[in-house]
Design goal:
Blueprint lengths: L5 H14 L10 H19 L14 H17 L7 E3 L2 H9 L8 H16 L14 E3 L5 E3 L11 H4 L8 E3 L9 H10 L11 E3 L8 E5 L2 H5 L1 H9 L7 E3 L8
Parallel strand pairs: 1-7
Antiparallel strand pairs: 2-3, 3-4, 5-6
Length: 256
């Protein structure tokens, strides 16, 4: 890597946005993160001034940075220190416990459905019933093995980077490729999509078929109420205590 490699800088900023926390491990405030990226942009513009134009907010190499910043800002707006809307995110330990539970295995239709529900929530910061608006066509395979989730009209969130900048760009939620030798979000989503009946409704989340010997999933979509209550159902199945907690599973951080 050189100091003037835009793609390398983009990947460093992508990782930075995901993991950055203040000293006591609390999350940054939205404006602090937003202003920090602006300051970094000014620093690199000065460094690049005798070479080529540099702009995190416009250059195509930094689309992954803008998309990740957008999703991260939404996450911080909702669950920053558990104060926004009383949201209480699942801890890393709770997420690991959930994914390792036998009833959340990708080897059964129920388990696979629950896993992709969790992955989508982790990567898009969705709220309850808004999962209903996600379509199978929104998932675009990336050359690196990951996925872009490209919602056509996403009115779920009126915050984030793109709303703050009044950008006309459509937000894209990025699911990075699984690490070598692991079976993560991309493995589960790829398997789930491959098991969709050809004549299924457009909705991403489908009902489980009564006869799973023929097909795991029905051609009909899963209802809004079922999706709204799915996270609580998962917590009950896996023994996660939800007492007096408004549970969300929003997180950009990688889960194993």
């Amino acid at each position: 890597m050189t100091l003037y490699d835009k793609k390398a800088i983009a990947m460093l900023l992508y990782e930075f946005i995901i993991v950055i926390q203040i000293k006591d491990k609390k999350e940054y405030k939205v404006n602090s993160l937003y202003n920090g990226i602006y300051a970094i942009n000014r620093f690199y513009q000065e460094m690049f001034k005798d070479r080529e134009p540099f702009n995190i907010h416009e250059d195509f190499e930094f689309r992954i940075v803008r998309d990740t910043l957008h999703t991260r800002m939404i996450e911080l707006e909702e669950i920053n220190n558990g104060e926004y809307n009383g949201a209480d995110p699942l801890t890393d330990e709770e997420m690991v416990k959930i994914f390792e539970h036998p009833d959340i295995s990708s080897n059964s239709p129920d388990g696979l459905l629950r896993r992709v529900f969790l992955w989508v929530g982790c990567c898009t910061a969705r709220r309850g019933g808004s999962y209903h608006s996600i379509m199978a066509s929104h998932f675009k395979k990336r050359d690196d093995g990951g996925y872009n989730i490209v919602p056509i009209h996403d009115k779920t969130h009126q915050g984030g980077y793109y709303y703050q900048t009044n950008s006309n760009q459509q937000p894209v939620h990025i699911i990075p490729p699984d690490e070598p030798g692991t079976y993560g979000a991309c493995h589960d989503i790829r398997k789930y999509l491959s098991l969709r009946p050809n004549n299924a409704e457009e909705n991403f989340f489908l009902r489980i078929n009564k006869d799973i010997e023929e097909n795991w999933y029905s051609t009909f979509h899963l209802g809004r109420d079922k999706l709204f209550g799915m996270l609580k159902e998962i917590c009950n199945i896996t023994g996660i205590d939800c007492t007096n907690r408004k549970i969300v599973n929003h997180s950009l951080r990688h889960k194993s």
